[in-house]
Amino acid sequence: MLTIKGFCARARQADNTPGVTAVFGELSTYVRTFSKDIRQFANVSNPEIEINVFSTKVDGVKTDTLSTVYAEGMIKVSAWIYDKSIAVNQNTTQSDYLLDILNQFHGQIENPTVGPIKYAAGRTMPEWIQFKLSGTPSDNTIKLWFSAVAMERDYDEYEITIVPPVANVDTFFLPIADIRSALALTSPSDLIEKVQLKRNKQPETVLKAEVVQYMHPNDPSIKIDTTWYALVYGPAGNNSESIKQAMIDFILANSKEPETAWKLIFPYLFKLTRMFIFPQWESMALPNRVTQVGIYSPIVSVQSALQKTKLALNHLDTTFIDTNVQVTHHKWRSIALVACGSSDNVQNKFKLTDYIGDYIAESATSLDFNRMSEPSKAWTVAIEEMLILAENMAAVDSLPIHIRRTVVGDTTYIGRTLNKVEYLVAIKRDV
Q1: What is the pLDDT of residue 226?
Q2: Most-buried pick from 227, 232, 304, 361 (CB within 10 A)?
Q3: What is the largest CA-CA distance in the chain?
Q4: Strands 140-145, 2-10: parallel, antiparallel or unpaired by DSSP?
Q5: Which sequence spans correspond to the domains of the chain?
Q6: Residues paired with 406 in a beta bridge
């Protein structure tokens, strides 16, 4: 299976107002960072159309080759969409648009789908189109965006480049004095210079500094914080899981030591410490009204909540869930929360109370709020932000840089890392 993902630009559509990107046909500066190498395709028949290919994969593996037959097909479909856009009624539905596509390209494309139909600058067209090109050398799926905003929201490919704190990662297996010396030899400015060299004139979407704790294998009291840099290309890669996996892949590819040895000295890296949180979105005490937002119920059926948790966490042993699942609630709209840790958590901390044992359901404005420890206060504030985003995920075009989307099994979560723990809040849409 060949998969192609790209953007169709049209110079005529560009908005040259500083800081403004046209609704259709113009790549934003931000979107251009989603790939290290964007390939452009055009032809003399449709000189205004430029196909920017961000990702080409065969069976999930990146490839640098692309037959011109696919480029010609993408140009042909895109040119028709732009030409048609000035004649399409603003109230055209996706179903109506698909019917027109099938009639126009009968026998040329298969299985077309389109994104939301939008009207802007006198044109009505979809944010994106996906289809299979017929009569080609291999089975294929092609997705083209026409809206930079939509691509910012939907693009799911990414690459991550890692810059380690020392040139030779096996330095971490030397005596502790040698490790400290090696780390001291590399100043922050030296690391930034290494980042610049790795960047190689290819601007990244996000630059992340990841602090990973080294732990002496024979004396756990000896700990050293080490800083690793990750150049992330594509917003989908801006999450702790993907970055950690990229770091693990980098280490194992550049080390003579086995993974078992690395797990002893970098447990927080090689073991992903997670806490899954399931808001009881379906349990309402006071329903939504025209002028008043609804209030969730803090009272839940333990049997029902446990059943749903086991269904969502079907990668975990049911006995493990029974032992470690906990129920609480948050002050935000009085919502009940079901929480359970992952079986791979560092130091065998699987319960929510292992991390916020003095948590109370109070808002930051309450006098009792300050009676909690700092980790519990930070968790209260962080979870409230995540709950707000998770409640109406469909309306959120972008997320704060410290928060990301992730999918585990069949459930989509809002995730962020706090005090070396990744908290994942299930979105309302997936309930």
Answers
A1: 95
A2: 232
A3: 73
A4: parallel
A5: 2-154, 159-270, 274-430
A6: 413
